[in-house]
Write a structure and sequence with these properties.
Layout lengths: L8 E3 L10 H7 L7 E3 L7 H4 L20 H20 L11 H7 L24 H14 L14 E6 L3 H16 L2 E5 L8 E5 L14 E3 L6 H9 L3 E2 H8 L28 H12 L5 E6 L11 H14 L5 E6 L2 E5 L2 E6 L3 H12 L6 H9 L12 E2 L2 E2 L3 E5 L11 E6 L27 H11 L3 H31 L18 E5 L3 H7 L2 E6 L5 E8 L6 H12 L41
Parallel strand pairs: 6-7, 6-8, 8-11, 11-14
Antiparallel strand pairs: 1-2, 3-15, 4-5, 9-10, 12-13, 14-15, 16-18, 17-18
């Protein structure tokens, strides 16, 4: 139907709320031959209702009560494949490797099995159709890349422990922050006294009388460029942020000489490089450490929009002395009479969703002989050392990183979200008892986990030599530089033709990032190339609208050339210069007496668009 209906229209509905077709319900009620009389609303074009799926029509996929014939299903799936093939060729705006061809050829045979890696990866359990042996090989490999003690050894406190995530890094961030909360707040799973060892009980230790009252009250710190999954995690887990505690208990005492910010400022502000401001972080952490709070610090290694890397080594060099001076390097917590745990009063989690999968291979390239082709290529792209981020980072004798997470669908490339979480045995709060149902401790966040994901990650790692992986990483850096120079050349071309928008294209790239950001183009360019877009407030307080391109290994120079030509076409940039912030709905004038802000919840940027 098109246009506005003024007469009752007969509409066939595919099915009812209980699975029965509405046609059958209407017929059985004696109201007609399977047709319901309704007053039709103005028709909507599916492409208007779902603009991001402009080549698809939802009507092709609605499932009738009687199901679809093989021919109908094949027709619908063919349309979906055609759509996805087109989007695959022009997907450049997100941190996702689009090179998937090898998985169908290598792994399709495993679609015949229900592969469920339920429970702990290091215990086989009773559900035997699993890929835990492959998962352990993947974890060992990443442990070696991240300079952790491997293979896994349950008796070694410094041995790694981890698992392959069913979700992406959001699951890993949630698990890491839950582990950090319990570790820092004095929680533990212990055998219940007098039960013969059959049951375990989750306990909370009481601080010793000589310890400050905040000893079991961890406070979280993260920057304003942190992924929104972290904000979700601190809300879900009821973890106090420094802003919430500062505003409620230390009003007017912010060491930065301002009102308590909701997040640690980024270097250069919202339109800066995207890495955390180490000077501001040091002052904030010192304030809370001196008041006895354990410190839960989340750092980014490849931010969502700017691709920025927090300077984790510099952060550690500044904070380890603070932790030593305030007694947070090591504390004793008593759970049984005469038996104590020795725990740190700080936890450093690294969200390496992209960077942790990418940077180890650059380190391998940097370790080659300086005269090798690969080392020479790397020096053209990176001046200076490869940044530290993993379990090998040691400052003043302290191994800094407590946990680390990576997304498997980003740098490695996977057909679905997945990833790797990793920590060390000494930071675990102890696994729960071995349940009879699965025969394996349920130490992971998800419980049932996708057994195909380890196969995908294993296949990627095994398909190339370490040196070939390193060459691929260096090539991605070269493509990013090519993208940046092409955008700057585009700016010159548009200027020569007097078509350059006021203020230019805002081309910018954070150090060593795999992404370049630039002025947001017209909607048809965004839709064709699947661009991620974000408004950023400038130093003057105005809003600039940016897009970005990630030069994942599936993005070639030829693809960059085609993209640039679309940006050069008439009408590609039809937006005004630095627009004022749009009008918003009226918000709360103030908070009620007992209401306090807990965390800033972004509704723009941070990967939302």
């Amino acid at each position: 139907m098109t246009g506005h209906a003024t007469e009752p229209q007969h509409v066939d509905f595919p099915y009812g709320p209980d699975g029965t077709s509405w046609s059958a319900l209407v017929t059985s009620a004696g109201l007609g031959e399977g047709r319901a009389t309704v007053i039709a609303e103005p028709a909507r074009d599916p492409r208007q209702a779902y603009p991001e799926q402009d080549e698809l029509d939802i009507a092709d996929f609605e499932i009738p009560a009687e199901g679809m014939s093989a021919q109908q299903r094949k027709r619908a799936l063919n349309r979906l494949e055609t759509y996805l093939v087109g989007k695959h060729e022009t997907m450049v705006g997100f941190q996702g490797n689009q090179d998937m061809a090898r998985y169908q050829q290598d792994l399709a045979r495993f679609m015949e099995f229900h592969l469920n890696n339920v429970g702990d990866p290091f215990q086989q359990g009773n559900y035997k159709p699993n890929t835990k042996i492959v998962e352990r090989a993947v974890l060992d490999h990443y442990a070696s890349l991240w300079r952790a003690a491997w293979p896994y050894d349950a008796e070694n406190p410094d041995s790694y422990w981890g698992y392959v995530l069913t979700m992406g890094s959001t699951e890993g961030n949630l698990y890491a922050l839950a582990s950090a909360r319990d570790y820092l707040s004095g929680k533990k799973l212990i055998t219940e006294p007098g039960d013969g060892g059959d049951q375990m009980v989750y306990v909370q230790a009481v601080p010793a009388s000589e310890e400050p009252g905040n000893a079991n009250r961890p406070v979280a710190f993260y920057s304003e460029d942190t992924h929104y999954s972290v904000i979700k995690a601190v809300r879900t887990l009821a973890i106090d942020t420094f802003a919430a505690v500062g505003r409620a208990e230390y009003p007017g005492q912010c060491p930065l000489g301002m009102d308590w910010p909701m997040e640690v400022p980024s270097r250069g502000g919202p339109d800066g490089t995207g890495e955390i401001d180490v000077d501001a972080l040091e002052q904030l952490v010192t304030f809370f450490a001196e008041r006895g709070h354990p410190v839960l610090l989340l750092l980014n290694f490849g931010t969502t929009f700017k691709g920025a890397y927090d300077n984790i080594e510099k952060v550690a060099a500044r904070l380890i002395p603070v932790f030593e001076r305030t007694g947070l390097l090591e504390r004793e917590i008593e759970f049984e009479p005469g038996r104590t745990d020795r725990r740190r009063g700080f936890w450093v989690h690294v969200d390496g969703a992209l960077g942790a999968g990418f940077m180890p291979f650059l380190r391998i390239a940097a370790a080659e002989d300086r005269g090798s082709d690969l080392a020479l290529q790397l020096r053209r792209e990176i001046k200076g050392k490869i940044p530290e981020f993993d379990f090998g980072l040691v400052v003043d004798g302290v191994d800094v990183v407590s946990s680390l997470v990576m997304s498997g669908h980003k740098w490695p490339g996977a057909p679905w979200p997945c990833g790797v979480f990793m920590t060390k045995n000494k930071f675990r709060v102890e696994p729960p008892s071995q349940p009879a149902y699965t025969g394996s401790p349920d130490t992971t966040f998800a419980g049932s986990r996708n057994g195909l994901s380890p196969l995908v990650l294993w296949n990627d790692l095994a398909s190339k030599s370490i040196r070939e992986h390193a060459a691929e990483a260096v090539r991605a850096l070269r493509t990013t530089r090519y993208l940046e120079s092409s955008l700057r050349e585009l700016e010159d071309r548009l200027d020569r033709e007097d078509r350059l928008p006021d203020g230019g294209l805002y081309v910018d790239r954070s150090p060593m990032a795999l992404t370049v950001r630039f002025r947001k183009p017209a909607d048809h360019v965004i839709e064709k190339w699947s661009l991620s877009c974000q408004p950023i407030r400038t130093g003057s307080g105005r809003i600039r609208h940016y897009a970005h391109v990630f030069a994942m290994s599936s993005v070639t120079e030829e693809k960059v050339d085609a993209f640039i030509e679309d940006l050069f076409a008439e009408g590609a940039f039809d937006r005004p210069h630095d627009v004022a912030e749009p009008q918003r709905r009226a918000g709360a004038q103030t908070f009620a007496t007992d209401v306090r802000p807990l965390a800033l919840v972004p509704v723009i940027g941070r990967g939302f668009q």
